[in-house]
Write a structure and sequence with these properties.
The structure holds two protein chains of two kinds. Chain A has helices at residues 2-13, 23-27, 42-45, 61-65, 72-80, 85-90, 97-101, 116-119, 129-133, 139-144, 153-156, 171-181, 183-186, 192-199, 207-210, 225-235, 237-240, 246-255, 283-290, 292-299, 307-311, 334-337. Chain A is built from 22 helices and no strands. By secondary structure, chain B is mostly beta strands. Chain B is built from three helices and 23 strands. Chain B has a 22-stranded antiparallel barrel. In chain B, strand 13 and strand 14 (311-321) form a beta hairpin. Classes of the chains: A mainly alpha, B mainly beta. Chains A and B meet through helix 1, helix 10, helix 12, helix 13 and helix 14 of A and strand 1, strand 3, strand 4, strand 5 and strand 6 of B.
């Protein structure tokens, strides 16, 4: 009940962000007739768009108060409302409005590109890239996924793809597969920092801590991961090794005294784990066959790995290699010598 | 086993200086670039300053410089060794300060062409005041630092960088990488260098990708003092790609460690995107050391109804893997068996009208030894608008392994408060099938207050409370300040 009450209080405290500006409402005003205001065009408000190529030329509050003289607070709230993420990104692109408006195909009409303002239910302010392709013939580059040099690399970094390479539903689960397929395409928009922001395991501060406020995301090691990490690793053994090496596991296990690499460490294995002869309980062999990565997380100690005390040539543990074992390593291989001291 | 010698120490110091020199050198270059230097350019130009027309772009050095600094301060009490059967353990109070810095310049002109040069640097440092012997009091490292020069359809990257995908899987190295592409979609990448090692090999618990043993081991015989020249990697990747048809790539990667080859792989990957909304993909990793496939994956992906209002993503996949072959092949345990795991499953992500999103996934594993396992999750998200006024999510998960399993429930919410403040909450509850040290459940609660003005900087304070088999109460606090600056010269 306490938690429910707390959650309800939080929800009630949430502030709905005011709408920044409704283009459709203003462009659809009854106008021009006696008793009606003067008709608005795009340039009524975006007065500087022709003179400031590359700029969005947002209107100032002076434009608004020409009509909304008594509504200073409302105007102020609307202009101060945060822009959507898409709107912020779109202002990053450099576009020469003046040059385009002068072209005969455009005919000075903003709406020929910004059709979404009046036709789209979502009131999309920015034209889709297909609109650019109506004049600019770059289908070949599109098919190859080449964004530059039409887009400057600095612009691409801030733009969110809406058509090609759209990061839509399932992208948070799928992006790794796409990124591994080809890094060339990702690098058009993303820097190494984009990947490292979440995936850099060198930092020592987990991404779940660095980005704890991103509660809408699903991270790899959430909440009390320490308790569950052994089972998670069993469930997805190959996944752990895509970022970590077994030494990462062992450094922590050694510090906590449960690694074979630490002198006098506590044995975490249950009774019957390892026996001196074939009649004894010997669970460790089966566990190792099933999940050798778990073994390696403590026992991978190079030439002093305690597994090879029994499993080296002539040892009581017998040959650990599977049936049909073969290797391309030469007789001088250092790792082979750990067990095969004199018989190579 | 190699003993550390004075000459090795000198080499280690030289290498340390090399990494530092990279960082300092790149930053110096940034500040003393051509045309009077970037520093003077930055002083004159501001974001949103006068932009040139399309014609004038051809004559100016059009570039963007971005820097970012993030400071995290944590506060917590910890006990390194959990007390068995509830015994009292020695705990310690720590307040680590973690600082990361990154900067990049994109589209810088060079003698080889307009917008042809990229520079990227990222580094971090950490200070732990009052740290005991078990914790390094201070550490830092350079995560990446490289210059990329593009020339027509070729690019050359020099410095600390990452290679990902194909036979390499993921590796960080100090060296060079040459990438070539043709207008017909052909691509070729050749790379090589020294594998990135942990800085000074000293910090407790710290492992850079691709590194080997560290000095923390208490068994002196297990210590392996590394000579960095013994740790290198090289590879080549060739392929063809076209958005409307698909892709095909072949790669070879060799990674050497002191005790022998760590990875010697061939990679094959292909995708078919010819059918609208459907993508078929196959990836394979072949170990040339063991002469067998170590990883095989087939996937079918359906992406339909992608629009601003709705979208559907479905992925079905089968994975067959040999975990021992994914270990470093210089590890003696890598030759102990070739047991295989087959996993099959899929996921669905649906973006529905009214800003509701449903995600579901389920995977089952079959082992050659022992009972099967599975994991599954389903979650529902609701977002009030695209300005983060309100967000809520509920998630249910299940994991089964041969040892234990659990049910998981998660609830999250976020809402915007006045004055650019945001309140965020996250709660997890886990119920274990078999008790751990007498406990059947864990829970985790976190709350954060974020200040996110429409400005280059933001801040956050928050804390979490965990109850688990290893701690009755684990209270942690964290504060973060982030500052990002961007300067364009247009």
């Amino acid at each position: 009940m306490l938690w429910a009450a707390l959650a309800l209080a939080v929800i009630l405290a949430c502030t709905r962000v005011p709408v920044r500006f409704v283009h459709q409402q203003h462009l659809g005003l009854a106008c021009g007739q006696p008793g009606q205001p003067e008709c608005l065009t795009c340039l009524s408000c975006h007065v500087n768009v022709e003179r400031a190529p590359g700029q969005v030329a947002h209107p100032s509050d002076e434009n608004c108060v020409e009509c909304h003289a008594q509504q200073h607070k409302k105007v102020e709230a609307s202009l101060n409302a945060p822009r959507s993420a898409a709107a912020k990104q779109a202002t990053a692109i450099v576009f020469d409005h003046d040059r385009h408006l002068a072209m005969p195909e455009v005919g000075g009409q903003c709406i020929s590109c910004h059709a979404g303002l009046v036709s789209d239910k979502t009131g999309n302010t920015f034209p889709p890239m297909e609109r650019c392709f109506a004049c600019h013939e770059h289908q070949d580059q599109w098919d190859r996924g080449e964004c530059a040099p039409c887009h400057h690399s600095a612009d691409l970094k801030k733009l969110f793809p809406r058509t090609m390479l759209r990061h839509g539903a399932g992208w948070d689960k799928q992006h790794a597969t796409e990124a591994l397929k080809t890094t060339v395409q990702c690098a058009q928009c993303h820097t190494t920092e984009s990947c490292d922001d979440c995936h850099d395991v060198s930092q020592g501060l987990r991404v779940e801590v660095r980005k704890a406020e991103q509660v809408d995301k699903s991270f790899i090691h959430p909440a009390d991961f320490l308790t569950r990490h052994a089972w998670q690793a069993k469930s997805e053994p190959a996944r752990c090794l895509s970022c970590h090496r077994v030494e990462t596991c062992d450094s922590c296990h050694q510090a906590r005294g449960i690694s074979a690499g630490r002198v006098g460490s506590e044995n975490p294995h249950p009774p019957g784990w390892m026996g001196p002869n074939k009649n004894a309980d010997n669970h460790h062999g089966r566990a190792a066959r099933r999940d050798i990565l778990s073994c390696a997380s403590c026992h991978d100690q190079g030439p002093v790995t305690n597994c090879i005390e029994c499993h080296s040539v002539g040892g009581p543990g017998g040959n650990p290699h599977p049936q049909g074992w073969k290797s391309s390593r030469g007789p001088g291989d250092e790792m082979c010598k750990y067990c095969h001291q004199g018989d190579l | 086993m190699m003993a550390r010698t004075p000459s090795r120490d000198r080499r280690a110091r030289w290498r340390a200086g090399y990494v530092q020199a990279w960082g300092v050198g790149l930053l110096t270059f940034l500040m003393a670039g051509e045309g009077g230097g970037m520093a003077s350019a930055l002083a004159q130009e501001t974001v949103g300053g006068t932009a040139p027309s399309a014609d004038s772009v051809a004559t100016g050095n059009f570039f963007e410089f971005t820097g970012r600094t993030v400071t995290n301060v944590q506060m917590f009490k910890r006990a390194l060794l959990p007390g068995p059967n509830g015994s009292i353990v020695e705990d310690q109070f720590l307040a680590p300060i973690h600082q990361s810095l990154s900067a990049h310049a994109l589209g810088v002109d060079s003698p080889l062409g307009q917008d042809s040069l990229e520079i990227q640097v990222a580094a971090f440092g950490q200070v732990v005041p009052g740290a005991d012997d078990a914790t390094r009091p201070a550490t830092w490292d350079v995560a990446s630092a490289f210059i990329r020069q593009k020339w027509q359809r070729a690019s050359l990257s020099l410095g600390r960088q990452v290679v990902a995908g194909g036979a390499a899987r993921y590796a960080r190295f100090d060296g060079g990488s040459l990438a070539l592409s043709s207008r017909f979609g052909l691509q070729l990448q050749v790379y090589g260098g020294l594998t990135a090692m942990p800085r000074w090999n000293q910090r407790y618990g710290y492992h850079q990708l691709g590194q080997s043993y560290e000095d923390w081991s208490t068994d002196p015989n297990a210590r392996l003092h590394v000579d960095r020249n013994d740790y290198w990697l090289a590879g080549v990747r060739a392929g063809w790609e076209r958005q409307d048809v698909g892709s095909l790539h072949v790669s070879v990667h060799h990674q050497q460690e002191q005790a022998g080859p760590a990875q010697a792989n061939m990679g094959f990957s292909g995708t078919l995107t010819k059918i609208q909304h459907l993508e078929l993909s196959a990836d394979a990793l072949f170990s040339t050391e063991a002469s067998r496939f170590s990883d095989l994956r087939f996937a079918a992906i359906v992406q339909a109804m992608q629009s601003d209002a709705a979208g559907l993503f479905v992925r079905a996949e089968v994975l067959h893997t040999v975990p021992s072959l994914l270990l470093s092949q210089a590890s003696v345990l890598s030759v102990f068996g070739f047991e295989e795991i087959t996993e099959a499953g899929g996921m669905v992500s649906a973006e529905l009208p009214l800003r509701i999103k449903i995600d579901a996934s389920a995977y089952g594993q079959m082992y050659q030894e022992g009972s099967p396992g599975m994991r599954a999750e389903v979650s529902a998200h609701y977002q009030l608008d695209d300005k983060d006024s309100f967000f809520a999510r509920a998630e249910l998960g299940r994991l089964d392994t041969s040892d234990n399993g659990y049910w998981m429930f998660r609830a999250s919410l976020g809402c915007r408060l006045p004055k650019d403040l945001k309140l965020l909450g996250d709660a997890y509850f886990y119920r274990y099938d078999d008790s751990i040290s007498g406990y059947r459940s864990s829970s985790f609660y976190a709350a954060h207050l974020a200040y996110q003005p429409d400005a280059p900087w933001n801040a956050r304070i928050g804390g979490s409370l965990t109850t688990s088999p290893y701690a009755d109460y684990d209270l942690q606090a964290l504060a973060r300040v982030e500052y990002q600056f961007e300067r364009s010269r247009r």
